[in-house]
Design a protein that fits this description.
Largest sheet: 11 strands, mixed
Shape: elongated
Radius of gyration: 29 Å
Number of strands: 18
Strand content: 15-25%
InterPro entries: FtsK/SpoIIIE/SftA, FtsK_dom, P-loop_NTPase
Protein name: Conjugal transfer protein TraS
Distance between the termini: 82 Å
Number of domains: 2
Number of helices: 15
Pfam families: FtsK_SpoIIIE
Structural class: alpha/beta
GO molecular function, one term: DNA binding
Bound molecules: adenosine-5'-triphosphate, magnesium ion
CATH architecture of the largest domain: 3-Layer(aba) Sandwich
Keywords: ATP-binding, Membrane, Nucleotide-binding, Transmembrane, Transmembrane helix
């Protein structure tokens, strides 16, 4: 026994050193490890198991084929499994039902997983695959599988081996006017919030799910841009006060918010008149030197704006809702953008909230405690998006489901920007803080109230 151990010792040592080297390589450079070691193994496993996996997921087709059998013991497995009638002992070659998998294309490696094309069988649609993505991810032992895109008769699946959102390394940066890179998508692409394509955003999530951290990232990116920032923080200003140096106005009480909204409505009337004088329908078609500054209104905890302590506040609340809705309707044309955060944005806060929510077409849903909030945020999207929102773990704050401008949804995570870092960015850019005089540079007669009410924004 001792002799055997002594003989094996060098081999065991080499094996241990080799395994340790692989583990270190994987830790230090997971991407190259995956491409060189993990991917070839995974690709082989996917090809070799595809017949069973597609059959198990109900994606294979049953076909009649000639198979050689040995007295009931099939040479090719499926013959026995799918045959119910008694097999005459003398017959060796029989027609049996077998599973034929859909044709799998070449598996291509990606930094975070792999991509593969599948030919749809007659009668199959991408929805058949969309319904089986969780099954596929378990069968392939990967973190997730998504339908990447499809063409008639063909679709592409993308598998992500490990959750790429465990650690975010993408920096937060300014990505052009009114565009901020705030984190990373599950596809490893940067997560960009772009107000020019989607002007208004709704960010929901349970407490401690990462809403304010995302707001920090946005403020960090927007602070260096020539835009006016206005904050509504009805949690007594705890969330937005650190950035006051860069904010044109910070309102922490409802009365103050109403006054700011009135100012913004007055500004929209001026911008409307300016556009009319230049015969254009929005400020982006104005000559550069005549274009007023874009304004981004950040609202943290929208529910506070709509909560009623007593009946006397009812009028103020409904006036606020009406103004916000009108601002949202006209925002894109006249350079006013809304970003609204809230734990719950449901009809229990009043009828105005539902109408406002409908105007906020950009949706970001963090971890939620109740399916209803996910529904309120992502309700009109793919049911898989709702399911993904419910599966966000509590130990991954900042992970969210993000509805992109391409009409798809993505799992994403914001880069962690602590308050101190966002505050430093706001303070460093305090010289870019626009005063109300700089926001309201338009020197024309404003449109009348009636003209304001009747203006129909261009929805194209
Ligand atoms: N992207 C992220 N990466 C890592 N940690 C994060 C991220 N986002 C948030 N966190 C952690 O979660 C904590 C809570 O985040 P945050 O304050 O943004 O939550 P919230 O949704 O605004 O909560 P509340 O509704 O109570 O205001 C942060 O202090 C931080 O530690
Ligand atoms: Mg918060």
């Amino acid at each position: 026994m001792t002799h055997l151990l002594l003989t094996l010792a060098p081999y065991l040592g080499i094996l241990t050193a080799f395994t340790a080297a692989l583990a270190v390589w994987n830790r230090l450079h997971p991407v190259s490890f995956w491409l060189a070691v993990g991917f070839p193994y995974k690709a082989l496993a996917v090809y070799l198991t595809w017949t069973n996996v597609s059959a198990g997921c109900g994606l294979a087709r049953k076909r009649r084929r000639w198979r050689l059998t040995l007295d009931g013991v099939p040479v090719l497995g499926p013959a026995l499994i799918t045959t119910t009638h008694v097999i005459p002992p003398t017959r060796k070659l029989r027609r049996v039902t077998v599973d034929t998998p859909p044709r799998l294309g070449l598996i291509r490696p990606l930094a975070t997983g792999f991509r593969v094309a599948v030919r749809l069988d007659d009668g199959q649609t991408p929805d058949h695959y969309a319904a089986k993505l969780v099954n596929l991810s378990h069968a392939w032992r990967v973190h997730s599988v998504r339908v990447l895109d499809w063409k008639p008769g063909r679709l592409r699946l993308q598998a992500t081996v490990r959750d790429p959102l465990t650690r975010i390394t993408t920096p937060v940066k300014d990505d052009g006017l009114l565009r901020v890179q705030v984190g990373q998508l599950e596809t490893a692409a940067p997560w960009v919030i772009d107000f020019t394509t989607i002007p208004h955003w709704l960010i929901t999530g349970a407490t401690q799910s990462g809403k304010s951290t995302l707001l920090n990232a946005l403020i960090t990116g927007l602070a260096a841009q020539p835009v006016a920032l206005i904050g509504f923080d009805l949690k007594g200003g705890v969330e937005l006060t650190p950035y006051a140096a860069r904010l044109t106005e910070l309102a922490t009480e409802r009365g103050h918010c109403v006054a700011v909204l009135n100012k913004l409505i007055a500004e929209i009337k001026l911008r409307m008149a300016l556009c009319r004088a230049h015969h254009v329908r929005d400020i982006w078609k104005l000559p550069d030197n005549a274009r007023p500054m874009p304004v981004v209104l950040l609202v943290d905890e929208v529910a506070e704006l709509f909560l009623m302590a007593d009946k006397s506040e009812k009028e103020e609340i409904s006036a606020t809702a009406v103004q916000l809705i009108r601002l949202a309707q006209l925002g894109r044309a006249f350079g006013l953008y809304l970003l609204v955060c809230g734990q719950r944005v449901g009809s229990d806060l009043g009828p105005g909230v539902t109408a406002l929510r409908a105007q906020l077409s950009g949706r970001i849903c963090h971890r939620v405690n109740d399916p209803e909030t996910a529904n309120m945020t992502l309700g009109d999207m793919d049911p898989a998006a709702l399911q993904a929102a419910r599966l966000i773990p509590a130990d991954m704050p900042g992970v969210a489901i993000f509805a992109a401008s391409d009409g798809r949804w993505y799992r994403a995570r914001s880069a962690y920007i602590p308050e101190a870092q966002a505050e430093a960015a706001a303070t460093a850019n305090a010289h870019l803080r626009a005063t109300w005089d700089q926001v309201t540079t338009v020197s024309v007669e404003p449109v009348t109230d009636a003209e304001f009410e009747q203006f129909e924004p261009d929805v194209s």
